[in-house]
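sanity check this record:
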Amino acid sequence: MKVKNQIAVKTANSGIRVVMLPDILYLKSEGRYTIINLKDNTSLVACKNLGIYEKLFKDINFIRVHNSYIVNFQHLNQIIRDSGGQYCVLFNEKIIPISNRKFSGIKEHLHY
């Protein structure tokens, strides 16, 4: 099976936009919509919920790290833990929470 390197995103305001997968940093749930955050510090409001993207990205390097977030692990810099929990730190210094339920799966994905 050939892995896609781009997706078409139906946005809430500008029709359909083609996005390269390596340009996606992370996705955040916003009710029935998904905010797709890109490397160039822009974001898109997609008309699909986060669960749709979780299924779409299940066989590539995007991991659901929290009920509200999917992270492109290509942009992962480190994982930190403190008394407040655990977090993904991306190369752009953005910090994304990791839920306790998802943490063991993330470690397994990273072969830790």
The chain has a mean pLDDT of 91. The first helix runs from residue 50 to 56.
